[in-house]
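Re: Re: token formats

Sure, here are both.
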Amino acid sequence: MNLQSKFILEFRSYDFAMQNHIIMKSKFGKQKATAVKKFQNALDSGEVDSLVVPMIKHLNSLEDYYTTSSCAGRISVFHDVGTKKDSDWLGKWHHEVGVEDIKSALKRIPKKGIVWFIYEPSIFHIVSRDLDSAVRIVNLARNSGFKKVGVQSCKPERYLVEICSTERIDAPLIERGKILIDKNYIKCIVKIANKKFQKGKKKLKRLENALKSEL
């Protein structure tokens, strides 16, 4: 390497370092650093859905984006007594389930409240540095099949985009200790939920591919 090439390489390295320094000093940079650290801690603790890890890592690696929350989709059995404090999960899965999973969750039949079978679709919150960057995310998500997409808040250096699927199931299973369903119903609702989960995974992959190719 000649002296001129060495000088250019060192100058580019210095310029890149200075750009990173400026980014970190900004409000966006500070908030992104905090969000990325939280994500890494959650990842180390096994609290992040494996299906969304590649997409989150890609977004967080980009200069104008970072994620604040994400979920690839969830199937659950939820005991609702009317208040958040006293309600609880009888079962919760971030993957497809079997009939035996639901039966196991229903071994304890609460005498109060309602027990629900719930399928929740994937949801993401992505922060963009500016409005143009946010609009790009919105368009890519819609083109990938997500119907519920929009900019939720607009603040300087913080444009929050929410991406959410619309497929959802909320079905009561037990009310005040009374079982409302039978074995065939459980088989049916598990089958429907798993199909929705599979559809959601395909949509997530389309979005991941779009983000990686366009951003």
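Second one below.
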Amino acid sequence: MRKLLVLLCLAGFCFGVPSAANIEKAKKECEGGNAASCAMVSEAYYYGEGIKQDDVKAFEYAKKGCEGGDAISCGDVGAAYHKGEGVKHDFLKAFEYYQKGCGGGDMEACYKIGNLYKYGFGVEQNHTKAFEYYKKGCDGGGAMGCATIGTLYESGIGGVEEDINKTLEFYGKACDLKYLLACEAYERVKSGK
């Protein structure tokens, strides 16, 4: 589970670990329909920041955030079903919530749908659809989608032909999005090592 600093700032937690008082305030705001506050509480429970770590509560608050329209929370619910954290493992439910997250603008959820298609988890394996979701994630600013496409072009797997120029293009995009492993891959490929 992950949230953007902006989301935390919107919920009133711009610096450091949220205090117990701020978490309680966010819980009340969540109950009042503030999806960003639900997401913040979910994050706090997931990582045990300012509160005892609890996957079940992290899932419950992420689900409330998703129901309130927070796309990243929808992706987090998908991840919980995918990993079986706080809820029974279920690839079909993971796919459903990743779809909601991706459709709402969570580019990591798009990348994760790509992985479901790549490996055939909960859906029929389909490399073309996997590529489409990686590309959607990349086009929306998701570094993992860009890096994965770079890897596909570098290795020539998943129905993609090897292409050094496209490899560099997509590793470069991921690097520009601050994904350091992609920066290293870009330099490795560019140097011919």
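DSSP finds eleven helices and no strands in the chain. The longest helix spans residues 91-104.
- S.
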